[in-house]
Amino acid sequence: MYYFGKGTEQNYTKSFEYCQLTAQQGDSDAQFTLGIMYEKGKGTEQNYAEAYKYYKLAAKQGNSDAQVNLGILYQNGDGVEKNYAKAFEYIAAAAELGNATGQCNLGDLYYFGKGVEQSYIKSIEYYKLAAEQGDSDAQFSLGLMYEDGEGTEQNYTEAYKYYKLAAVQGHSGAQNNLELMQENGFGIKK
């Protein structure tokens, strides 16, 4: 309630206090929220080591959002040594649980070959899973891959479709690419 200001004034300090109490009782959502608060420095001092600790506790209970955030800590080297193999491990676990952000990030790891052998085919597979759940970053990435013919035949109609899905959600990169496609007549049936 206090974290989002639902039904009361937003207060990160109070939210932090209540989350600590609930997290100590083993609540994975509270542990995840504490991880965010430590990572972002909301209601407390920024502390990546504590963020890692609480994400890990929540992830052990199957909290897929915590698994994604743990993976991102490893990806960026925030509070832990940068380790793409570990990032892949946590993000893949979240993706397998159906977490759209995890699926999109897993698509990125496959696309760039970070922590896993590079594969445009696998990248498309995970981007599609996330895109079907409405993830605008995944939709944008699919648009790029279809436009450039990476891992698939070049297909301007598909690129246009995915850019449009992301653009409607306010994705600025997709809005820009959609505008360029419209100006040049790509992906539009005449």
UniProtKB/TrEMBL annotation:
InterPro entries: Sel1-like, Sel1_AlgK, TPR-like_helical_dom_sf
Domain of life according to the entry: Bacteria
PANTHER family in UniProt: SEL-1-LIKE PROTEIN, SEL1L ADAPTOR SUBUNIT OF ERAD E3 UBIQUITIN LIGASE
Protein name: Sel1 repeat
Organism: Snodgrassella alvi SCGC AB-598-J21
